[in-house]
Amino acid sequence: MTSSAYLREGERVGLRPFRLADGPEFTARAHESRELHYPWLFPPVTVEEYEGYASRLIGDETRAGFLVCERETGAIAGFVNVNNIVHGAFRCGALGYGAFAHAAGRGLLREALGLVRAHAFAPPGESGLGLHRLEANIQPGNAASIALVRGAGFRLEGFSPDFLYVNGAWRDHERWAVTAEMPRP
Can you tell me the distance from the alpha carbon of 178 to that of 17, in angstroms, rounded to the nearest whole number? Predict the structure, then answer.
């Protein structure tokens, strides 16, 4: 894959938007990663589910979806989505993310999160999202996700009981956030 295909690039990963044509690779990776993701995350595992999921990310200005690709091969290593984007005085978005099993534990998602952070905080004139704040809501038992955001410079801001409906029940979440002014790790 050529570097011009990426919105942002790091040493080992590049970010690019979701495409409908990515369905077969994405769903194969999601299917292989079900054990890794359970019980925290349930990405689409069929092409039909993926088409609806990707279409919402592609066609909705309140969301921005990024595939995390290994630069050497172009293989999809994971994804980071900025959901619930609000502009105006708030200028905030909520993160959702996941690494696929073949890429887990290699630091690729950590690198990608730094690229998403740079993209989210860059002004629209610089092809960024123009946000001031990113939030990540994480179930307290999800140690890997908490370590990821902590390592990316997010701060713990609070606790939200019964915050999101996940895996058949309302789940408690910790609220982590970073703002444009906060130093990068």
Answer: 22
The domain ranges of the chain are 3-179
pTM: 0.94
CATH fold label, 3-179: Aminopeptidase (3.40.630)
User: What count of residues does the chain have?
Assistant: 185
Residue 142 token pair: 């999800």
What is the β-pairing status of strands 76-86 and 133-138?
unpaired
Residue 76's beta-bridge partner residues? Answer: 69
| C-alpha span between 80 and 91 (Å, rounded) | 18
70 touches 77 (CB < 8 A): yes
Q: Which two tokens stand for residue 180?
A: 């444009």
Return the closest-CA partner of residue 57 out of 70, 44, 74.
Answer: 44
Take residue 148 and report the two structure tokens written for it: 């990821």
Average pLDDT along the chain, 185 residues, taken 10 residues at a time: 76 96 97 94 96 94 96 96 96 97 95 96 91 98 96 96 95 97 88
Please tell me whether residue 138 adopts helix, strand or coil conformation.
strand
Hey, is 107 helix, strand or coil? coil
